[in-house]
């Protein structure tokens, strides 16, 4: 689809006048003769359009912030549900504004490229990416602060004002050592905010520094990756060799005197000292210690002594960090590792405080920046002639317009990572599985940020390229998946996966709520055995010998397991032939899989029956007419009567199938077909009109022949 058609199809009608006038600008570009005045007028027009879009986004964003802050002042025990509903409305509005912003930003980029391509000597790029965007920084407008505020307030509403105790979630081991299964996905810019909103309903946004108010700069993550001139680490990671390492130095936010902590990290694939398990280790240094650490003058033993002097860690933890520090230093020295590539992105992380068992991160504005000296450029030169551990001319001001094009690579998609500590028994929740199976994400197994950046920035130095590069030349957007993502009902109420917020909120009702009085780890473990915060498709595989009492507090009691003969027609076949994760689903399995907040509405079942009876009543009426035509009509009447019998039979079978499908969906909570029947009535009208048309066509010759006979008799 061409961009002009795309922007017209995605335009929100109430905002139409605020969009970039892409078609008008494109038509103006196609004029054959350009005077100096035309060039000047076109630049003025582009700047006016940019100012219009920027101010619109700024005003709408400020309005959303004001609405969110207002609801913060109205939260009290009697308003938790109403405030949460209002936050759901704001989430939908944020997504609409984010889509508007992304669409217009792409429109300006394309117009600027077309101008410089079609107009000889045209140089709109330098003006647009220079003075224009400095005056109206459309590419630096962000929604993260608003998302974090909504998440914080939504968490308060979900917990009904109870404080979430971080000690209660103290699961997952040491925060500096991670062993977990990671899956990675690409997210198209059109869906970034939508995916954040869907995750936010189930997991709160994790804020790294709780001691201050969240700012946009807090989302910035910068990592300098180390390798040698032979790209040994790159090749080993690409081939997934045993013991392959990735060594990087990472820091969060804006690096300054108040924020000078950096983390030295190592990812090891099949670590020999950990029974061939992949693991991530890290420890913390101050920025002024990094150069000494890299050149070896600040040794692992010195690091150990400093930790012992502080006295904040246990001896076992100090020994672990000393082991990691020593191993990284040895790799740097033996392999001749140097800073090669910086990876920058803005991260939104989702997890329960202090709980590492399930963590989801979404990285946007991903950029790769050269740190090396391979081409003779002194990128990390200090005033005294020495080389620093990172270049100092790059901060966190994405999109880094001041860098040369040869020094930077901007990735077109966001990266979604799901990190699950399966060794602690954590499994993927149902809601997350539904999201990952939808059109909103594109799975890219074993995607690596460093491998991608190095393969593109150092194309002449690396011989092997990753498989996913081909996907960059394709559109990763998939056909729309029904009832997935954000939408609005016919009454303009916000819908999440086709359901209202309160219905989605019931999905996590069985999550235990911990207060300050429940700080005992033993008590938490007891609760955790009985009520897992995350339900999984594969829970039926897990068995426990611990007795427990299950109490159903729903007003819809779960019926006992039925035999096959008592099921509806759909369930008889579905329960036998449907498999998920290699486990056969019985009728009782389907009931357990049903969301905890799903309620069986008797009115809906009776409405389904009434609809079915209405179809049968019409079929009986049509059948009566057709039998009269067959028994008492002539040849044409019998032909039409036979056609009506066929129509009546088709309609009766169709209505039976629709009745069974609706009954199955309402009984199990599955949603694979729309409850509304748009096709059936339309097809019925077409068939009836066709039958009447055939009848009229066959009767017309008889009408004219009767007139001729009457005229002849009159003449005689």
Task: Summarize the structure in words.
This protein has four domains: 3-152, no CATH class; 212-349 and 359-413 and 448-473, VTC, catalytic tunnel domain (mRNA Triphosphatase Cet1, Chain A), CATH 3.20.100.30; 510-593, no CATH class; 602-715, no CATH class. By secondary structure, the protein is an alpha+beta fold. Strands 1, 2, 3, 4, 5, 6, 7, 8, 9, 10, 11 and 12 form a twelve-stranded antiparallel beta sheet that branches. Strands 13-14 form a two-stranded antiparallel sheet. The chain has a two-stranded antiparallel ribbon with strand order 15-16. The protein is 46% helix and 13% strand.
Our Rg estimate from Cα atoms comes to 33 Å
Structural class of the helices, strands and pairings?
alpha+beta
CATH architecture of the largest domain: Alpha-Beta Barrel
Average pLDDT over all residues: 80
Biggest β-sheet strands, sense, barrel: 12 strands, antiparallel
User: What proportion strand?
Assistant: 5-15%
Number of strands: 16
CATH topology of the largest domain: mRNA Triphosphatase Cet1, Chain A
Distance between the termini: 72 Å
Defining traits:
alpha+beta, mRNA Triphosphatase Cet1, Chain A, 20 helices, 46% helix, 716 residues, two-stranded antiparallel ribbon, 4 domains, twelve-stranded antiparallel beta sheet
